[in-house]
Structure formats: structure tokens, C-alpha cells
Design goal:
By secondary structure, the chain is of the alpha+beta class. It has two domains: about 130 residues, Purple acid phosphatase-like, N-terminal (Immunoglobulin-like), CATH 2.60.40.380; about 280 residues, Purple Acid Phosphatase, chain A, domain 2, CATH 3.60.21. Helix 2 packs parallel to helix 4 and helix 3 runs parallel beside helix 5.
């Protein structure tokens, strides 16, 4: 939805005829919501925020229409009211609203609810985001991590839940990159885990996370589980996310065409599982869709200082090869490589942040095969992606993995652990 400059690019936001927004009933305070009215089950979130655009997201518990109140002065009596799509069972009652025509360097507050057929809005929750500034003197900071609720470690209320999200939130970053493994679809979560010192880690457990995910509902349930955590929801409400996926959204070390030998699964065709996983990923994260295409790889422009290039190192790869395999073994696919070369070469941002869901320099074995980029062999980088190192990603003399700099600025590759970056 494009917003008129007359209404949203000025300091105070007012409802205007240019938006042709239908009038809505005043939202009821959350504590007073009747049980038959739409509630918000998983909080609110924003994502892929640029200088002039953003995507808002939420989930409800019944068929109803997404309603957003948006203001740039913190006063909801001045808010523009926008109607989004109708949330239904086909998308697990999730809904997103893309916004365009926003003012650069502006904080926006929003309030999300869902309206029934009469226009009455149920429970509402508030969030905020700030668009990227156009002034190169304004600093930028972000945090990045990955691997949420993995290895059997889920939400432990006794330990305060997912406190890493609280720690990241407290740094007050401009945005957050989730660099893959948003869920662990292949990692069941048990009620308790006995630690080495004899103490017990106690997990909150739902039906969907108690086994490996195979059905669409089980994949969706993994995202619903993470959103039960108050730390995750609090950060989502105030820090825009840029999300990509890796393997555990589907299955460990997967590649297209694979047939699993994992005996925990009754559905062992990875292409079937990956399609369900991709649908849940798209439903539960506030992703933009560049060019109207449903794809994971994309660029998110964060003003003159930072461009973020999100890679997809799963969808287009070949079978994981042996370390000494000859010839090209795809990991990005030709179309994505061409896109990355073109977009990085054209970028005028001081920093080009390439969000890689796979490590470049670490050796990641898959049995006797190689699952990541490095192959552990001596000598110069091989011919990967094409094969596994991005030697095809060249602009002049630049090749990631070599020491020569990228043109027109500096390049930062991100992957895993909890880290913070600032300009």
C-alpha cells in the first residue's frame, strides 16, 4: 500500500481522502476484548524496512481483516487507518501489509488489530520502527544471529525465556538480521533436559515441537512456538527484522531432490517438506517480495551507509559433494549469482552487508561430503558457487574470500552467533 506524501511524509499524520481508507470502529483495549472478537496470538512485527518502505505483520485466531493505525508523531488520534488483507486458515490466520512512500529517517508507531465483518476491531497491540535515514552522517547499528530454539533448547520460563533476544533488544539496534535457522523443524523439544551438573533445564513444550515437522501445521507450529516467548515478541515489536532461511527450517543439511534416510520421518521427500517449510517461513515473517516474486534472496537498502544482501544458499544448490569433487557444484544458482554480482556492483552504499546463511571459511561436513563453502583442501579458493566459494561473484578484481576490497565501499559477511555492528 502506497501512502500519500501529504499524509505520511509530514510531521503529523492525518487521515486524508487520498488514501481512500474506510472508517473503522475504535479499537478496544486488550484487557476488555470480548472472547468472540479477534485476538492477537503472536504479537506484531515489522520487517525489511528501508528508507521509504516497510512490511507489517501479525496473526489472529479467526477469519478477520488486518487493520493498521499508523502515525509519525506518536499520537494515534492523528493516525492513518489502513485495511490489509483478510487473514484466513489458508495462511494460518497470519497477515502482512506492505507500506510504501514513507518518510526517510522517520520513527513510525503502529497499532495492529483485526476487524470482523461489521468492522469492529478486537484486541490491538502496538509496535514501532524507524525508516533508514538519507543523511550519511547518521550512524547505523544492527544485530545478527541465527539458530533459534535449536538442539532441543526451547523456552525455559524458569530461566527467563529466550534471554538472548532481550540482550539484543537492549542494544537498541536499528534492525536485526536473522541469518537462518529461524526454527529447528528437525529438532524435537522435550519437556526437560538434564545438564552435566545434574540440574534440569525445563522446556515449554507444544504438540507441534514434540516431534519432527512434516505437516504444514507442524512447520507453522514451530514459528508459533517461538512467538510464545515474551522476549521475542518484545523485540519484534520494536526492532525490524531482515530474515533469511538455512537448513533447519526444513531438515539438517538438505538439498533439492534429496530423499531422507532419517527414520523419524514418514514423509522423506525433501522437496515436499521444503515446500511446506517455505510456505510457513513466508507466512510467519514480514518479508518483502521483490519484483512480486516469492523468493528469499533480496536486497534491503538501509540508506547511503548500508545495503543488506540476503542470500539463499539452500533452494538452488546441488547435492552436497565430496571435498575433492571436480567441476562446478551449485550453491547459489546462476540467477542468484547474476543478481548478486549486478546488485553489489551497482550499490553505492558505504557498507555492503552480505548476509550468508552458510559459513564461508569453516569446514562443515555432511558425513563424508561437504555441506558449506570451504572444502578443507590446501591452496587458493576453488570454483564454487559455481562450486562453493563465491569466486563467481566478481567486480573487477573483487572476489569474496580474497583480500582485495569490494568496489565503492566495504563489505561485511555475516553468519551466526549474537553480534552487534555499528557504523
Amino acid at each position: 500500500m502506497s501512502l500519500s506524501r501529504r499524509n505520511l511524509l509530514t510531521g503529523a499524520v492525518a487521515t486524508g481522502a487520498a488514501l481512500t481508507v474506510a472508517p473503522l470502529a475504535r479499537a478496544t483495549a486488550p484487557a476488555l476484548v470480548r472472547r468472540d472478537r479477534a485476538t492477537l496470538t503472536s504479537g506484531v512485527a515489522s520487517g525489511d524496512v528501508t528508507s521509504t518502505s516497510a512490511v507489517l505483520w501479525s496473526r489472529t485466531d479467526q477469519p478477520s481483516q488486518l487493520v493498521v493505525e499508523l502515525t509519525s508523531d506518536g499520537r494515534f488520534e492523528h493516525a492513518v487507518r489502513l485495511r490489509g488483507p483478510v487473514a484466513g486458515a489458508d495462511a494460518d490466520f497470519t497477515a502482512k501489509l506492505p507500506l510504501h512512500g514513507l518518510r526517510p529517517g522517520q520513527r513510525y508507531d503502529y497499532r495492529i488489530g483485526f476487524a470482523d465483518a461489521s468492522g469492529s476491531v478486537g484486541q490491538t497491540e502496538q509496535g514501532s520502527f524507524r525508516t533508514a535515514a538519507l543523511r550519511p552522517t547518521e550512524p547505523v547499528s544492527f544485530v545478527w544471529t541465527g539458530d533459534t530454539a535449536g538442539q532441543g533448547w526451547g523456552i525455559n520460563p524458569d530461566a527467563g525465556g529466550m534471554t538472548a533476544y532481550k540482550a539484543m533488544h537492549e542494544t537498541r539496534p536499528d534492525f536485526f538480521i536473522h541469518s537462518g535457522d529461524n526454527i529447528y523443524a528437525d529438532g524435537p523439544i522435550q519437556p526437560q533436559v538434564t545438564l552435566r551438573d545434574g540440574s534440569v533445564w525445563r522446556n515449554l513444550v507444544t504438540e507441534e515441537v514434540s516431534k519432527v515437522a512434516e505437516t504444514l501445521n507442524e512447520f507453522r507450529g514451530r514459528y508459533r512456538y517461538n512467538l510464545l516467548d515474551g522476549n521475542v515478541r518484545a523485540m519484534n515489536a520494536e526492532v525490524p527484522v531482515i530474515a533469511q532461511w538455512d537448513d533447519h527450517e526444513t531438515h539438517n543439511n538438505w538439498y533439492p531432490g534429496q530423499i531422507l534416510t532419517d527414520t523419524r520421518y514418514t514423509e522423506r521427500r525433501i522437496d515436499v517438506l521444503a515446500a511446506r517449510a517455505r510456505q510457513a517461513f513466508g507466512e510467519y515473517l514480514p518479508l518483502s517480495q521483490p519484483g512480486g516474486r516469492d523468493r528469499v534472496y533480496r536486497k534491503v537498502a538501509r540508506g547511503p551507509l548500508v545495503d543488506v544482501f540476503c542470500l539463499d544458499m539452500r533452494t538452488y544448490r546441488d547435492q552436497n559433494p565430496s571435498p575433492d569433487a571436480s567441476g562446478d557444484v551449485a550453491i547459489l544458482g546462476a540467477e542468484q549469482v547474476d543478481w548478486l554480482v549486478r546488485e553489489v556492483a551497482a550499490s553505492k552504499a558505504v557498507w555492503k552487508v552480505i548476509a550468508s546463511d552458510m559459513p564461508l571459511g569453516l569446514l562443515v561436513p555432511d558425513g563424508t561430503a561437504i555441506e558449506a563453502v570451504a572444502n578443507g583442501l590446501p591452496g587458493a579458493p576453488g570454483t564454487r558457487p559455481g562450486r562453493r566459494t563465491p569466486t563467481s561473484i566478481r567486480s573487477g578484481s573483487w572476489s569474496p574470500g580474497r583480500s582485495t576490497p569490494a568496489p565503492s565501499g566495504r563489505t561485511l559477511w555475516t553468519r551466526r552467533s549474537v553480534r552487534r555492528w555499528s557504523s
